[in-house]
Protein: NADH-FMN oxidoreductase RutF, flavin reductase (DIM6/NTAB) family
Amino acid sequence: MEHVTITPSILYVGTPVALLVTENPDGTANLAPMSSAWALGQVVVLGLGPEGQTAVNLAVRPELTINFPSPDLWPEVERLAPLTGRDPVPSSKPRHRYEPDKFAAAGLTPAPSGRVRPPVVAECPVRFEATAAAVRPDAGGEFVVIEARVLRVHAATDVVVPGTQHVDPARWSPLIYNFRHYFGLGDELGHSFRSETPRVWASAPSKGL
Ligand SMILES: Cc1cc2nc3c(=O)[nH]c(=O)nc-3n(C[C@H](O)[C@H](O)[C@H](O)COP(=O)(O)O)c2cc1C
Structure:
């Protein structure tokens, strides 16, 4: 395999899209798409621009929900892309416009959470209620790194292996952000020796099979 060295402006090699819901100063909900998120046990580490309304909200009101849309929701996600809940729009976001009701703008529906004040996104099959346990600048000084402790997980019944605590990977696909293009997952290739859901569990055929 031959390689060249390149200097891409972004390093999104394919990460799930998450929709973060946080509480604005007036008690309304802000909804924002992001993809710099990964799980560390029961903590989700989030990377956010410091000037977005989401980071501003989390610095003072740490409760949030982390909602994972399925691939068919990419148009709703992209409708949120040029919007910010920050008013006035910061100069670092010259291509964004202020939108106070991003749920309506996206065509998505808020639904009550159980343990935190911000709502979840009704259309998302997998969603977490969480609290920002740590909010700090990243090493480069450009972003904020948030460690969000997950308090409760919601999963649509049709992506749960019946009678278990497991999400069925044959039935669930995240929406993947791949160098700013949206993808779903392809066919299953195999599973880890640590899988708690080997194919015998799956009551539906694997995606694409
Ligand atoms: C698919 C997608 C992924 C994004 N990922 C991130 C991210 O990981 N971190 C971030 O700060 N902004 C990310 N953004 C940009 C934010 O959504 C954008 O800054 C937005 O203004 C945040 O809204 P807010 O200002 O209301 O918080 C992403 C946008 C899209 C559409």
In short: The domain at 13-201 is CATH 2.30.110.10 (Pnp Oxidase; Chain A). Helices lie at 53-60, 74-80, 102-106.
